[in-house]
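Put briefly, the fold is written as integer tokens. One such record reads:
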Amino acid sequence: MKFKDYKYERPNIETYKEEAISLLENFKSADSIATQVEIMDKLIQKEKDIFTMLEICYIRNSIDTTDDFYDKEVEFMDEMMPEVEGIKTKYYKTILESQFRKELEEKFGELLFKKAENQIQTFDDCILEDLKKENKLSTEYRKLIASAEIEFDNKTLNLSQMTPYRESNNRGTRKLANEAYFGFLNSKRDELDRIYDELVSIRTEMAKKLGYDSFTELGYKRMERLDYDQEMVQVFRDQVKDHIVPICTELRKRQQNRLNYETFKYFDENYRFLSGNPIPKGDPKWIESKAVKMYKELSPETHEFF
């Protein structure tokens, strides 16, 4: 089945919530681990159905941001997903309290329960409306970036389509292309600054409501950084500064020498060789066929999906 053939249907969030809460009540009263596992499977499938529709919606909206239907569906998803997050949190709280927790850990592994403990620290009903605002701001940002219509080379191009020109063998073209690219971003500077400012504000507010000093702590938990923490990342950053940055600086100097430039400009950074950057050696169908071959060889058992 091709992606265009996948059917999209707006999820019924109220039905989902009612069914999920009913299943969670059944989970609590279950008298065997087998029954609880069966209920978990049903809950996971219902969430998968929601997220399948979510991905179809966002992908189709990203393909054509002028499509009114999917534009409205994205607005709906932005409102709905925090509700789904609330159900997921209830699910995690419930399995943490299971009378068969030890057996469930043996079956599914400790990671599931670490994720559960982490999840309940990132959500509370008190931030439900804040999450909806955050989603709307993120969507506004995506739409703003996708709205780019840059006149270049007698064409109207979006930001992604500017990439070949920004990596052109012709230095003058690269300079003009980068000026056009960043010129668009500069023209949207006020809107981008406002979105960023509002995101910082709403995220800080959510963190405070959940008992954190700043969004940084909440952010790590939302990214499910379960195997390292903020202090460990700081150590890594210091190592990057001390060891990686000098290497990168040397690589840039070597790149400048390789290109034989007296001065090295920002628009030269993505240009690697005088012979030009590597480019695909075939058309889109050729690229697709190579990707299919690669994934088949990586996972032969999934060949029926290609």
Notes: Residues 33-63 form the longest helix (31 residues).
